[in-house]
Design brief:
It is a single chain. This protein has 515 residues and is an alpha/beta fold. The protein contains 15 helices and 19 strands. Strands 1, 2, 5, 6, 7, 8 and 16 form a seven-stranded mixed sheet that branches. The protein has a five-stranded mixed sheet with strand order 17-15-9-18-19, covered by helices on one side. It has a five-stranded antiparallel sheet with strand order 11-10-14-13-12. Helix 1 packs parallel to helix 5, helix 3 packs across helix 4 and helix 4 packs across helix 11. It is globular and about 70 Å long. The mean pLDDT is 95. Bound molecules: flavin-adenine dinucleotide (FAD) and succinic acid. Succinic acid (SIN) binds next to loops.
């Protein structure tokens, strides 16, 4: 059976800030198509609370933003990428506003930022960014938006990426050919039992690129957010760091602040330090830790959404302490790209959380991620404007077959069991604190989970295959890096070792290089 084919000039995978902003910036480049596997609004972008960082405040400068980003990155930021981010940041947020995204007048503050520089819309900045960009994109009318379309794999012919195989909203497979394909599929928070991410964050684009022969970089660096609220029924939601910027404090059961024992900046120390401090405190005392939101002035006005979510869980943030736990939040690594989003595979680009430009180093500075998606998405568009890859010759495509989705209950149950086990392994052995022996065990166990999955036939199975692919690269990278730096902490190598490890680890199928 040969599959139905469709064509685009530029194909964008994903509808977070990276995908939407790239699509808007590619307007005018011929037929632009955007695929997203759920509803357009299902993304990490939609859930972003704190805001987007840019040096636009009085007394601020890209130089200060640069210094804060590099300090948080713990020696591993690619400085040329950080320079691009902070210098193009102010114009990028102005462009977002021109497109219709609203930000409040006052700037917020977050941990490890030396200035107030967080543009935000109450505590639902991501929802506002999505709303503004979606409205602008739909008004343009020239971009074909396909919701519910699942990108299955990249199509590589003679070393060039010529599009994807995909399932449409009825799970019918087809091939979408494109002169340029942009991966903007976000991160892989669903690797972990406790995470702040949406269900769609299953590392699909990263795994796809890896299968296609692209390099992945900095995969050992997973950021854990210190303050998630995880309800007893399961499911976690984020309690923004911006609250600590406005005076919220972290305390133990007796109401005592303990973070000064870990870092002089206490609640405003870099995220990796705070997350590990909470994790240790919980483990050593066997007791929960809490966020005290009562010192925050105008809590309900400034953080209405978070307050409401807590109320719906029966907690009154104006009166009582909120139990919190660290949770997996962000992947610093991803598909390695240059400063223009190019992956090294002709025709293939990546931006946003799926990509690794090196701006975040070993630990991302809060609110730099939304900015990264927009800044580097626009750079891909500018590159394509200068040199869109040539039209596709007529290829004879390899046969690509996919059985119709078969919702067999037994199979779905098995997939969920494997998925859950993977999340447990990642949390227990590839989490906030790691040890070489356990990383090795985790890798082996994942290998057998992968074998028991077999050949994926449904979306869920494909997502699980993608997670297993990403998980094994994360575990391998964490095993190889025998030091502690940023978000990567090895109990058996607790010190940062610049002499040996001031370098990045890059992985391609069957190969690892240090550079
Ligand atoms: P996403 O926004 O995750 O979008 C990825 C898109 O790809 C989704 O639409 C998804 O459905 C689609 N997709 C995935 N796989 C496929 C596939 N196979 N086929 C088709 N489509 C696919 N960062 C900040 O800078 N500031 C913040 O305040 C902030 N708060 C955050 C709060 C939360 C709760 C979370 C989870 C993250 C937060 N972050 C924040 C991080 C930031 O939101 C993300 O890193 C950023 O939004 C990623 O944008 P993106 O466009 O790369 O990916
Ligand atoms: C938050 O609001 O705490 C999240 C900010 C971020 O992840 O950048």
């Amino acid at each position: 059976m040969s599959l139905p084919q469709d064509r685009a000039d530029v194909l964008i995978l994903g509808s977070g800030i990276a995908g939407l902003y790239t699509a808007l910036s590619c307007h005018g480049l011929g037929r632009v198509t955007l695929l997203t596997k759920g509803k357009l609004s299902q993304s990490s972008t939609e859930l972003a609370q704190g805001g987007i960082a840019a040096a636009v405040g009085p007394g601020d400068s890209p130089l200060f933003h640069f210094a804060d980003t590099v300090a948080a990155g713990d020696g591993l930021c690619r400085e040329e990428a950080v320079r691009v981010l902070v210098e193009e940041g102010p114009d990028t947020v102005r462009r977002l506003m021109e497109l219709g995204v609203r930000f409040e007048a006052g700037l917020g503050r977050e941990a490890a930022h030396s200035r107030r520089r967080i543009l935000h819309w109450a505590d639902i900045t991501g929802d506002e960014i999505r709303r503004g960009l979606e409205t602008a994109l739909r008004a343009l009318g020239s971009v074909s938006i396909r919701e519910g379309h699942f990108a299955w794999d990249l199509v590589i012919v003679k070393g060039r990426c010529i599009g994807v195989t995909a399932l449409d909203e009825r799970d019918e497979p087809y091939v979408l050919l494109a002169r340029a394909t942009v991966i903007a599929t976000g991160g892989a928070g669903q690797l972990y039992l406790y995470n702040t991410n949406p269900e769609v964050a299953t590392g699909d684009g990263i795994a796809m690129a890896y299968r296609a022969g692209a390099w992945l970089e900095d995969m050992e660096f997973i950021q854990f957010h210190p303050t998630a609220f995880c309800s007893p029924e399961g499911g976690c939601f984020l309690i923004s760091e911006a609250l600590r910027g406005e005076g919220a404090v972290i305390v133990n059961r007796r109401g005592e602040r303990f973070l000064f024992r870990y870092h002089p900046a206490a609640e405003l120390a870099p995220r990796d330090v705070v997350a590990r401090a909470l994790f240790r405190e919980m483990r050593e005392t066997g007791e929960p830790v809490y966020l005290d939101l009562r010192p925050v002035e105008g809590l309900l006005r400034r953080f209405p959404h978070i307050s409401e979510r807590l109320r719906s869980q029966g907690l009154d943030p104006e009166k009582e302490l909120i139990p919190v736990t660290p949770a997996a939040h962000y992947l610093m690594g991803g598909v390695k790209t240059d400063l223009d989003g190019y992956t090294g595979i002709p025709g293939l680009y990546a931006c946003g959380e799926a990509a690794c430009t090196g701006v975040h180093g070993a630990n991302r500075l809060a609110s730099n991620s939304l900015l990264e998606g927009a800044v580097f998405g626009a750079r891909i568009a500018r590159t394509l404007e200068r040199s869109l890859p040539p039209p596709l010759p007529s290829f004879s495509l390899p046969q690509w077959r996919l059985p119709r989705i078969r919702l067999q209950v037994r199979k779905a149950v098995r997939v969920r069991k494997i998925w859950r086990r993977l999340q447990e392994i990642m949390w227990e052995k590839v989490g906030l604190e790691r040890v070489g022996r356990e990383l090795g065990e985790a890798w082996e166990e994942m290998r057998s989970l992968r074998a028991s999955l077999g050949t994926p036939e449904t979306r869920e199975e494909k997502e699980l295959e993608n997670l297993l692919t990403v998980a094994r690269v994360v575990a391998r990278a964490a095993f190889i890096r025998e030091e502690s730096r940023g978000a990567h902490f090895r109990k058996d190598f607790p010190r940062r070792d610049d002499a040996r490890w001031l370098r990045h680890l890059a992985h391609r199928r069957g190969r690892v290089i240090e550079g």
